[in-house]
């Protein structure tokens, strides 16, 4: 008679599974709450201590950590010496383990959980048992996911045992599961000790969904979700219309979200290939839309629109006039949905907490042979600026400068943003030479550049950019400062009666 040791926290489907095993002639061994449930359901169950000849001790901290359990799991069925040893010691063979672990993840996510609650939900016996069974997958079946019950029963009904390929598949799931579980614990202790960059790092993500392809059709891809607070992100969004989001849709939408979260007043962000095509803020969201759209009426075609206010009928009618891939918003009015859902190719994404900003997460970049990890660029501190020009900015200029600098934080370096009336009118991004970025921004601003302001993500190394900006009619500049030629740059600013503000903060984005 084959034996199955069943001890699960998640009891979904376990009664039906154990009952089916019993009908197939299996002996059931169990512990604690699982044994009570199975016995109450009329299933004959052996206690673990009937096998170990040792009671549970230390409030259940020790129950399956025993040679009679691990010997029964780990002995090699084809090894003569192993067989002789377990027979000599009276160890019973255990041919299947069904186990899932204490809910450590749910416990750390619960705001009411104290440190002692969290510690007591670190499973010890369970991981040891399922790792032992997975190590010996050639002879032992191990199940940690209730979704696999039907697969195992189907094979047992047909073959009296599971297939080797199935046991290896189940073993793979075990080591993924325990690795994830241990990473949660490791990260908890790193946070407890305030260690941002530990000696060894493991990262925790859960599969959200598979994607049709990556950046290009020949690249496979998937979307994984962090286990930390993810409200206000695409991980917790609700798609209410359109095809599934693609890799590029998600990447571009995330870029739009990051920009949007810089602004509190009604704001619209247009994004194409993860860079803004236009950003606009206003007293009303309708005004913000017009500003964002008019920055670049061509590049927004096939792009992303993100709004930090509800999409209403008026905005929906404007969006409906062009081809947009994705619209992100905290909500959509019924009239807006009636208009936008008539288009099959538009995706409408609802993100309830779209203005949430406080995320404790890292920025991660993959490089050949490793990864780079840094804190998120959350710093702005624009209330601590230094006015270095002779002319001081008026209130309107200062508002536009701060708006432009927030916008410049999210474009690829070297980058500059020209703005007027809290609207981007020209964006120069991703250039190896800052002068080229300035030239592009001026060119894209066309006849609107006069009396505008400009923000730069890094300092101006030479006066040549200032000469170009003065000639174009830009009246105020905001930049980090810090160049060895700052004095020359400021001299050129004063020569043209312009404003220059230093922030002391650089915002490179590579």
TrEMBL record:
InterPro entries: AICAR_Tfase_dup_dom_sf, Cytidine_deaminase-like, MGS-like_dom, MGS-like_dom_sf, PurH-like
Pathways per UniProt: Purine metabolism; IMP biosynthesis via de novo pathway; 5-formamido-1-(5-phospho-D-ribosyl)imidazole-4-carboxamide from 5-amino-1-(5-phospho-D-ribosyl)imidazole-4-carboxamide (10-formyl THF route): step 1/1; Purine metabolism; IMP biosynthesis via de novo pathway; IMP from 5-formamido-1-(5-phospho-D-ribosyl)imidazole-4-carboxamide: step 1/1
A Pfam family per the record: AICARFT_IMPCHas
Source species, domain of life: Bacteria
Gene Ontology terms, MF aspect: IMP cyclohydrolase activity; phosphoribosylaminoimidazolecarboxamide formyltransferase activity
Cellular-component GO terms for this entry: cytosol
Reaction it catalyzes: (6R)-10-formyltetrahydrofolate + 5-amino-1-(5-phospho-beta-D-ribosyl)imidazole-4-carboxamide = 5-formamido-1-(5-phospho-D-ribosyl)imidazole-4-carboxamide + (6S)-5,6,7,8-tetrahydrofolate; IMP + H2O = 5-formamido-1-(5-phospho-D-ribosyl)imidazole-4-carboxamide
An annotated GO BP: 'de novo' IMP biosynthetic process
PROSITE patterns, per database record: MGS (PS51855)
Catalytic activity, EC: 2.1.2.3, 3.5.4.10
Keyword Hydrolase attached: yes
Residues annotated as domain MGS-like: 1-144
Alphabetized UniProt keyword annotations: Hydrolase, Multifunctional enzyme, Purine biosynthesis, Transferase
CDD domains with a match to the protein in the record: IMPCH
Entry's family note: Belongs to the PurH family.
Entries under HAMAP family matching the protein: PurH
Notes on the domains: The IMP cyclohydrolase activity resides in the N-terminal region.
NCBIfam families: PRK00881.1, purH
Annotated protein name in UniProt: Bifunctional purine biosynthesis protein PurH
Organism: Senegalia massiliensis
């Amino acid at each position: 008679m084959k034996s199955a040791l069943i001890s699960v926290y998640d009891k979904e489907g376990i009664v039906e599974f154990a009952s089916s095993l019993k009908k197939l002639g299996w002996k059931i061994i169990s512990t604690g709450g699982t044994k009570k449930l199975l016995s109450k359901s009329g299933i004959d169950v052996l206690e673990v201590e009937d096998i170990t000849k040792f009671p549970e001790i230390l409030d259940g901290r020790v129950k399956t950590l025993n040679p009679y359990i691990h010997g029964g799991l780990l002995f090699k069925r084809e090894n003569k010496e192993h067989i002789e040893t377990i027979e000599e010691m009276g160890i019973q063979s255990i041919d299947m383990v069904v186990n899932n672990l204490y809910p450590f993840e749910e416990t750390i996510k619960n705001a009411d959980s104290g440190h002692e609650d969290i510690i007591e939900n670190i499973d010890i016996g369970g991981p040891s048992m399922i790792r032992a069974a997975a190590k010996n997958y050639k002879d032992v079946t191990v199940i940690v996911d209730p979704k696999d019950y039907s697969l195992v029963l189907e094979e047992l009904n047909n073959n009296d045992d599971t297939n080797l390929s199935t046991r290896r598949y189940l073993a793979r799931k075990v080591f993924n599961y325990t690795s994830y579980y241990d990473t949660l614990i490791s990260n908890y202790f790193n946070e407890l000790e305030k260690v941002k960059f530990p000696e060894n790092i493991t990262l925790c993500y859960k599969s959200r969904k598979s994607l049709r392809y990556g950046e290009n059709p020949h690249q496979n891809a998937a979307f994984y979700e962090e286990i930390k607070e993810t409200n206000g992100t695409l991980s917790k969004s609700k798609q209410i219309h359109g095809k599934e989001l693609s890799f590029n849709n998600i990447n571009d939408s995330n870029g739009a979200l990051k920009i949007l979260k810089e602004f509190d007043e009604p704001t619209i962000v247009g994004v194409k290939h993860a860079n803004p095509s236009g950003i606009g803020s206003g007293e009303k969201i309708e005004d913000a839309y017009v500003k964002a759209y008019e920055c670049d009426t061509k590049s927004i075609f096939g792009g992303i629109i993100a709004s930090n206010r509800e999409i209403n009928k008026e905005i929906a009618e404007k969006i409906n006039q062009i081809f947009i891939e994705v619209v992100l918003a905290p909500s959509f009015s019924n009239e807006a949905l009636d208009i936008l859902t008539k288009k099959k190719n538009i995706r409408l994404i609802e993100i309830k907490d779209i203005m949430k900003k406080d995320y404790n997460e890292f920025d991660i970049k993959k490089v050949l042979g490793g990864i780079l990890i840094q804190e998120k660029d959350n710093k702005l501190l624009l209330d601590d600026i230094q006015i270095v020009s002779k002319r001081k900015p008026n209130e309107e200029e200062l508002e536009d400068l701060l708006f432009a600098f927030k916008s410049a934080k999210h474009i690829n370096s070297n980058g500059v943003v020209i703005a007027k009336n809290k609207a981007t009118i020209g964006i120069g991004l991703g250039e190896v030479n800052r002068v080229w970025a300035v030239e592009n921004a001026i060119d894209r601003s066309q006849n609107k550049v006069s009396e505008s302001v400009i923000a730069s993500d890094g300092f101006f190394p030479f006066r040549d950019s200032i000469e170009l900006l003065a000639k174009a009619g830009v009246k105020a500049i905001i930049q980090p400062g810090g160049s060895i030629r700052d004095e020359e740059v400021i001299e050129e600013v004063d020569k043209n009666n312009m404003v220059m503000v230093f922030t002391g903060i650089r915002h490179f984005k590579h």
